[in-house]
Amino acid sequence: MKLLLFFIFSAGILFMQEIDENALFGTAETITVYTNQKTNVLIEAIKEAVSFSGSVRTKAGYGMDRHWAEGKKSRSDLTNNELDLSIEGNLLFDIRLAKGIKSFANLGVWYYPLGRNDQHLFTTLTVQGTNLVTNTLQYFETNIMYISFREFFIDANIARAVYLRLGKQVLKWGKGYFWNPSDLVNTDRKDFLDQSDYLNGNYGLKVHVPVKTVFNFYAWSGADNVRNLDELSIAGKAEWVMGRTEVSVSAWAKKHFLPVYGFDFSTRILGADVWGELGISYGANDYRMRSEQQYYIKTNFVETNAIVIAGTNAVIVSGFVIETNSSVKTNYSLFHIRNRWIPRASIGLTKTFRVGGIKDRLSFTGELFYNDGGYRHNVFKDQATRDYIISRGQYSPGRLSQWYAAGFMYFSKLGVQDLDSSLNYIINLTDKSSMASWSLLYKPVFNFDLTMTLAAFTGHLNTEYTTGGNLLSAEIIARLLF
Questions:
Q1: How far is CA 76 from CA 71, 85, 179, 196, 339, in A?
Q2: Domains, the chain, ranges and CATH?
């Protein structure tokens, strides 16, 4: 599979000739051309630049326990409520050199004054009789500060025909808004309650070969958690632009994993932006949980002695009494779905509206997600099952079950010029739990804003969006840009 993908990538690079240079990274240099009629000499004045920018965000959040919020416990009992405080800084470095060479870095710094618990998993092997048993254990570590590069890469090009990016980077892979079922390149996902936050990139090499404005070819080789060359992941995507419609096909492969094939499109229909995305594999790469009940029957033979009087004689009679005890034990294990196609797909649209004479003042985005590898029932209903899935690192929000839907609405200039509002909603259609958020964004000056968000978690107890125990949460974010 990797050899086939590599051959396709190489062929694409060799046979593509016409390049649209301005559609790539933007100009990293300023060129002024002077023409001397006598000597016909061209002189290029090239400008190199180094820029520094960033943002600082401080957050204060408060989660309200369901029983406390519903008045089923004393208002003075704040035991299960949770206060969350943090400050985050992102420092952006942009270095641009001649001939389209540049480097970019996004350094993130997080400080949690109340501490943050991080889960760590490790595996142990034990011998039980003739069997080798694998056990996954977990422990929690409390930290107050983190420093990490979200992105850190170098851009270069070959004759303005092939564009290379090496390092830790976030790629645009797929057309979906919240769900990207064909994207196995990026491992970080959007947070429903904080969609404006930066994503963490993955380390690797991206190759981009454009042909005018009608075709793009992308190749990717990922190196995260890799020890040898044969463990590199490899992916490729071919993208066509036909008027208002974009269509792409993709493939991803890695050693010890099943290949995943992708398809996506975007177009404009009746004034709305419409998109769809599909990822499909023969078998699943992620794990599913299964439970098996074992019945144990323990039998004891208890010796008894009895004295029987027969006439004038006393006879001792010995015997056995059978005692039986039964018990049921549930065993959990992880497995991969095999021997059938596993499709994952999303489809959505965005429509903007003119309100009060202001164009695009109101926007609505809706998206539906189907995950054939997800659970068809509420696996969080049983606490032991829920704890097993979460402790094994097999829970990904918004991707646990088979069916999801989400809506995102944004209204700008809410009464005053500097006040915007958003209303977002996501529902797990399998277990009927949901999460809704309402935000107010106040931007008094260009480089400073305040955001207040209220969120509610609805549904039956012990479902995906109620399992945290909170009914409501409130958060205030102050952000400064520089």
A1: 11, 21, 40, 35, 56
A2: 2-287+336-481 (2.40.160.10), 288-335 (no CATH)
